[in-house]
Amino acid sequence: MTARAKRVSIHLPGTAPGAPRRNTLVVLGYLLGLVVFVGVLFALF
Hints:
By secondary structure, the protein is mainly alpha-helical. The chain has helices at 2-11, 20-44. Keywords: Membrane, Transmembrane, Transmembrane helix.
């Protein structure tokens, strides 16, 4: 549990360690935005 909390804090230093569900939503939202951004770039070029 200590290593997991440390890993979460390394990935997301601005979020509280007591909210794993919110951190997961932030990561998923970031990945989704990145995929959409790459898709738009491929569509334009």
